[in-house]
Amino acid sequence: MNLQGSCVVVTGAASGIGRALAIALKSHGADQVVCADIDLVGAQTTADQIAGTALQMDASEEESIKHLIEHVEREIAPIDLFCSNAGILTMGGVEISNEDWQRTWDINVMSHVWAARHVVPRMLERGEGYLLNTASAAGLLNQIGAAPYGVTKHAAVGFAEWLAITYGDKGIGVSVLCPQAVRSEMTRGFEDSVASLDGLLEPETVADFCITALKNNDFLILPHPQVKEYMQIKAGSYARWIAGMQKLRDRFMG
Ligand SMILES: NC(=O)c1ccc[n+]([C@@H]2O[C@H](COP(=O)([O-])OP(=O)(O)OC[C@H]3O[C@@H](n4cnc5c(N)ncnc54)[C@H](O)[C@@H]3O)[C@@H](O)[C@H]2O)c1
Question: In angstroms, rounded to a whole number, what is the distance separating the alpha carbons of residues 253 and 191?
Answer without folding.
Answer: 14
